Amino acid sequence: MFTATLAVDMVYDLPQSRERILGRERFVRFNREYPGDWRVRIERIVADAEGRQAAARTLVTVGSEELHAVHFFTFDADGRIDTVTDFWPEPYEPPAGREHLVERY
């Protein structure tokens, strides 16, 4: 169960909305109560050699909408997640003038 991977006093930060959730129970409840039918696909995970930090890039699908997100994790001495910081960037159109350098996808 995902809850078992979380430290009891973990901290969840959402810098873009300036929100912070303190504690495992509140974090689990936040995710359980979040509206919509969410599906998450992990696209990439990187971690340090000591197993104390990791980052993940995900593709989140909510109905027909797809959102990319970047998540940063730190782990306590027992290997449980003690912090999560999520970034949910908004897609945007690039400025003109660099079309000769880039490929759009």
How would you summarize what this structure contains?
This protein is mostly beta strands and 105 residues long.
What does the model show?
Helices cover 10% and strands 49% of the residues. The protein is mainly beta and 105 residues long. Strands 2-1-6-5-4-3 form a six-stranded mixed beta sheet, covered by helices on one side. The longest helix has 10 residues, at 24-33. The radius of gyration is 16 Å and the shape is globular.
Describe the SSE topology:
Layout: E1 6-14, E2 19-22, H1 24-33, E3 38-47, E4 53-62, E5 65-75, E6 81-87
Parallel strand pairs: 1-6
Antiparallel strand pairs: 1-2, 3-4, 4-5, 5-6
Mean pLDDT: 94
Number of strands: 6
End-to-end distance: 36 Å
Number of H/I helices: 1
User: Regions with pLDDT < 50 over 5+ consecutive residues?
Assistant: none
How much of the polypeptide forms β-strand, as a percent range?
over 45%
Oligomer: single chain
How many whole angstroms does the radius of gyration measure?
A: 16 Å
Characteristics:
globular; 49% strand; 6 strands; 105 residues; six-stranded mixed β-sheet; mainly beta; 1 helix
